[in-house]
Amino acid sequence: PVARAYSHYQMVVDPEGTPAQLATRGRSHWAHQTFDEVVSQELAVLEQLGITTETTQVEFEAKYLSARDQHGTSYCPQGHGGHSLVARGLYALQLEKWLQGYELVASSDGRKELVASSSPAPNPRATSSDKSGGKSGDLMVVKMESLVGKGAENAARATQRVMDCVFDFVGLERIRLEDTGAKNARAYPPLDKSSSAAVKLAAFYAPHNARLCALLDDPNFASGWTPAPP
Fold first, then answer.
1. Residue 141's CB: how many other CB atoms inside 10 A?
2. CA–CA gap between residue 139 and residue 90 (Å, rounded)
3. Would you list the DSSP string of 89-130?
4. What is the pLDDT of residue 182?
5. What pLDDT digit, counting tens, does each position of 129-161 carry?
6. d(CA 136, CA 186)
7. What are the pLDDT digits (tens) for 104-121?
8. Which of 49, 170, 209, 227 is the most interior residue, by most CB within 10 Å?
9. Which helix (H) or strand (E) holds 34?
10. CA nearest 105: which of 6, 230, 224, 218?
11. Beta strands of the chain (E only): which ranges?
12. How far apart are CA 93 and CA 96, in angstroms?
């Protein structure tokens, strides 16, 4: 979620693009603010609203997703992307609504990043678990990192591997992907993990990442999301 937040910020403030693209990204909302300033502001809002690891999905929706600030401005406006830089990384709170009424099931090949519910799916090869009485599920959660490898060739193999699992899961014939290159990518300076913003985000997200791992019944799901050094 720390890397996601930084990427989100860089997308929004990128000056390249048509006027319509810049408006859709919400560039005017963050163009004159640093990453640290945006992070600090949003962390303050979440603290003021009382969003913690104890917050339920219903409370999160009422307090943040559907709420407005003292000026009547929505915390999550629908017209542009220049908002919710920090809140979008609260994955457990967002995933819980999808999982209401569904039981989590790990993939049959042991890859914990592929998670499903207990309702029958078209192709039983994709997931299986004793938790659901042997049924496969309807919901698959894939980590973005699973699509990326070191170097173009490895990235292509990683993307193909994940998509083969997806094809199996939804009951479609596997196809060979001709283009696995990154889309909507942009060049920007790497995140300084010792920066104030990165350190604050790592500390903020740590318990929320633990909540996500507990939700998915996978203590290693957030592996690699290491805290920034002090």
1. 19
2. 19
3. G-HHHHHHHHHTT---EEBTTS-TT-EE-SS--S-TTSB--G
4. 78
5. 222 322 345 677 888 888 776 655 688 888 899
6. 38
7. 555 444 443 334 333 333
8. 209
9. none
10. 218
11. 105-106, 115-116
12. 5
